[in-house]
Amino acid sequence: MTKRRTFLKTSATAAAGLGISSSLSASFLAPSSVLGANDKITVALIGCRNQGWWDLEDILKQSNVVCLTLCDVDGSVLADKADQLEKMGHPKPNITMDYRVVLEDKDIDAVIIGTPDHWHCLPAVEACEAGKHVYIEKPLANSVGEINVMLDAARKYKSLVQVGQQQRSGAHWKSAIEFVKSGKLGTIRQVKFWGNFNYGAGNMPVPDSDPPAGVDYDRWLGPAPLRPFNKNRFHGSWRMFRDYGGGLLSDWGVHLLDMGLWAMDVKNAPLSVQSLGGNFANTDRALEMPDTLTVLYEMEGYNMVWEHNGGIERGPYDQGYGVKFIGSNGTLVADREKWRVFPEGSGEEWRMEAMDPQPSDHKSHLNHCENFIRAIRYGDSLNAEIEYGHRSALFAHLGNISYWADHRVVYDEKQRRITSSEKADALLTPAYRAPWKFPTV
Ligand SMILES: NC(=O)c1ccc[n+]([C@@H]2O[C@H](COP(=O)([O-])OP(=O)(O)OC[C@H]3O[C@@H](n4cnc5c(N)ncnc54)[C@H](O)[C@@H]3O)[C@@H](O)[C@H]2O)c1
Questions:
Q1: What tens digit of pLDDT does each residue of 116-128 get?
Q2: Ligand 1 pocket, 241 CB below 6 A?
Q3: Residue 393: CB within 6 Å of ligand 1?
Q4: Distance CA 78, CA 97 (A)
């Protein structure tokens, strides 16, 4: 198994290790077949409750993939998901609360990481060190310092790292991006993203309490600061608390920003980032991230603008969330259901042809999981290689840093520093709580 994995890694990931753009990589570096169609690929899931489980389900729909181990720090989630796996006809998995047990298992080829954002970096870096491939949920991690070290680890250890930005595998997103790139919209001067979601308003406060039975709460906190258990900061709703997540901007923002970065072929950090926001809609909720936020990204020759509103679900073009590319000939507007073009001009003289809405086939997640397995088995290029997860997380986190630091932020990508202020620079990397140590690569 180890020998097989070594062969698989050196061939399928040679391109990433050489720093070659992933769109070019597999086509000329990977062999036409890395593993046979009948060879088994073994996986484990770390963080099983919600999204990680969906990832595993779609990964197990690929032929000859077996799940050996489930890992979670909540004993009832573990028992429930192990039971479900067996009921679905899969072999009984091993279970553990310690992700390091998974990484020590030489029989596991790839791990899926579906933990909350503050628990992405350590298992991902250590998985790369342990010679495993990684399907990791978005955002890549909860800080700029973490995403940087994760990128370094993936490159150093030549692991395939697919980030859960599944829109990259959606056929209608791909055609929307191609349309933008075709130039038919004319000069694009702004790319706007919006995400209006009820959950962004936060829950009503509840008192601190004991953690539920069977939960290893200290391990759930991991590198985050020690504090009493509170249900609002736990399963699902942790995203609105700074130690674990980055609110709507890093939760939904990375998916939508990614579409703008893809279409506009962005390969650098923004020139500057300025955020304004606050908890304006509700002042009685339990959350730390702003329910209202606008972020201006200064780009070379155009602007990008993110906007979110927690507690409402209506938005421009009657879409609660979306992305729009504003061109001189027309505007392309997209969400997960469709993309449309609104031509400029009038009935007498339109600047471009109108077209029917282009619908989604709703297969992006399944395609994304298939792409990950094909990358391991056959050397296909990853659709959301870590570089893309890194870039959209960088944009999202810089937006949050500008909000927290309360001024315009300039990030120097070479130095990996915020040069505009020490206050903002200090927010790039979290302090890890002992015994967890910030990884070095
Ligand atoms: N790609 C998408 O569209 C999408 C959608 C939803 C969530 N997500 C991402 O998926 C990740 C998980 O989100 P969720 O909604 O499933 O969260 P969740 O809180 O529902 O589930 C997280 C699980 O991880 C477990 N966990 C926590 N620390 C752990 C550790 N150290 N080791 C093992 N297990 C641990 C928890 O007990 C819980 O079962 C997040 O990064 C989120 O942003 C992505």
A1: 999 999 999 999 9
A2: no
A3: no
A4: 8
The burial class, CB within 10 Å (0-12 / 13-18 / 19+), for 129 is: middle
Q: Return the amino acid letter for 358.
A: Q
Q: State the CATH number of the domain containing residue 407.
A: 3.30.360.10
Cα 294 to Cα 358: distance, rounded to the nearest angstrom? 28
The full length of the chain comes to 441
Q: Is 146 in the pocket of ligand 1 (CB under 6 A)?
A: no
Q: Over the stretch 171-206, which tens digit does the pLDDT of each residue have? A: 999 999 999 999 999 999 999 999 999 999 999 999
Nearest CA to 375 out of 6, 4, 11 is that of: 11
Res 325: pLDDT: 98
Q: Are 111 and 90 in a shared domain?
A: yes
Strand partners, 332: 325, 341
How does DSSP assign 100-140, residue by residue? HHHHH-TT--EEEE-S-GGGSHHHHHHHHHTT-EEEEPSSS
Q: Calculate how far, in angstroms, residue 369's C-alpha sits from the geometric centre of ligand 1.
A: 17
Q: Are 144 and 180 within one domain?
A: no
Q: Is residue 49 part of a domain?
A: yes
Q: How far is the CA of 230 from the centre of ligand 1 (A)?
A: 17
Whether residues 186 and 144 fall in one domain: no
For 212, the 3-state DSSP assignment is coil
Structural domain containing residue 349: 171-360+393-425
pLDDT tens, 356-405? 999 999 999 999 999 999 999 999 999 999 999 999 999 999 999 999 99
Query: How close is the Cα of 164 to the center of ligand 1, in Å?
Result: 12
Ligand 1 centroid, distance to 35 Cα (angstroms): 30
CATH code at position 164:
3.40.50.720
Handedness of CA 25, 31, 32, 38 (dihedral sign): negative
Among 45, 51, 230, the mutation site with the greatest number of ligand 1 atoms within 8 A of its Cβ is 51
Shared-domain flag, residues 276 and 315: yes
